[in-house]
Write a structure and sequence with these properties.
By secondary structure, this protein is of the alpha+beta class. Helices cover 33% and strands 26% of the residues.
């Protein structure tokens, strides 16, 4: 795993509004390595040491959050994960706690002055033996935190050596830091935008785990919202959706189709939905909404069935198909939306 840092530095800012377990990104070309960062939402800019980028096996995973209404306004933590733990970290069924698979090497902490003495802030500071203050900006205070108190004794000798080598360049990182007044308006806008995305960590009707990371694998995903009670009310288009799905797989394998059964999880609803799937020979994936997806449904859908189109990041496009349609209509609309996204 040479230069794994180069593959992980491009992670996007995550806003602390129901964020789940991070997905480790897939490999990116070496030319796309980013070492200079400016987070207007956090009031921080810094440059990753060149030595970190050039090192082998430097699996550094950034975990940034901004939570404007919390005692901790923002933090950016860089976690180191040994090579031998990477497979387990990517295993969604792993029972090993994430904190046992990685150890923080550095954290940037941003706190408003009125929250400095709060329990949450003091607890966060206590996680690190080294707490250094950075230049404050009006009522915002910034900290550079290193030497995580749990240490690295649980790592292999090779992982310890890599971690200690990474630590040597922390002064370079600190010297590159610039602080400035966070853009609170940008944060609020980002929080509002975050609520528009479809995000979920749930199970399929067959009990398999699935998350919104599935969107990353396709140029576009078509999502149909349905309910098991539609089956008894004879509001059924499963046969047309199955025809559409089979045709979609042949014509546009870069487009996915899933169905959300909105009245699940519920044992009776699940049994009824699976019975309907069996009757109509359904082979596409049906999923059960989690709390976050259920809220999105309540805020954005007017009735059932409804079909929407989302991009690779799970952002829904404005067009919705409301009501039952035939397979040809779904294909024509999908191809129009796909052309628009490519444009």
């Amino acid at each position: 795993m040479k230069k794994k840092l180069a593959l992980l530095l491009a992670m996007m800012m995550l806003f602390a509004v129901g964020c789940g377990k991070e997905e480790v990104p897939q490999e990116q070309p070496q030319a796309e390595v980013q070492t200079e960062f400016e987070f207007k939402e956090c009031g921080l800019a810094y440059t990753i040491p060149d030595e970190w980028v050039e090192m082998e096996n430097s699996n550094l995973i950034p975990a940034p959050t901004v939570s404007p209404n919390s005692e901790i306004y923002a933090k950016i933590r860089y976690n180191y994960t040994p090579d031998e733990n990477m497979e387990e970290l990517n295993n969604t069924e792993s029972t090993i706690p994430v904190e046992e698979l990685m150890t923080p090497i550095v954290e940037f902490l941003v706190v408003k002055e009125e929250n400095l003495a709060s329990a949450a802030v003091q607890k966060e500071l206590a996680l690190f033996s080294s707490v250094e203050k950075l230049p404050a900006q009006e009522n915002f205070h910034f900290f550079f935190l290193t030497e995580y108190t749990t240490g690295i004794d649980h790592f292999s000798d090779g992982a310890k050596a890599t971690f200690e080598e990474l630590e040597k360049y922390l002064p370079n990182l600190k010297d590159s830091i610039k602080t400035f007044l966070p853009d609170e308006q940008a944060v609020q806008q980002a929080v509002e935008n975050n609520g528009k995305y479809l995000s979920f960590m749930t199970n399929t009707l067959n009990g398999d785990p699935i998350s919104s990371a599935v969107f990353y694998d396709y140029d576009m995903t078509v999502i149909n919202f349905w309910a098991s009670y539609c089956y008894t009310d004879n509001i059924i288009e499963l046969d047309e959706l199955q025809k559409f799905y089979k045709d979609l797989q042949k014509k546009h394998p870069n487009v996915n189709f899933i169905q959300v059964v909105i009245d699940t999880p519920d044992s009776n609803a699940e049994e009824l939905a699976l019975r309907a799937y069996d009757e109509y020979g359904v082979t596409f994936t049906g999923i059960m909404p989690d709390q976050h997806l259920a809220k999105w449904i309540m805020d954005n859908l007017n009735g059932l069935p409804t079909t929407i189109f989302v991009d690779q990041e799970g952002f829904p496009r404005e067009l919705k198909i409301e009501g039952m349609q035939d397979a040809d209509y779904y294909m024509e609309t999908t191809e129009t939306m796909l052309d628009g996204m490519k444009g």
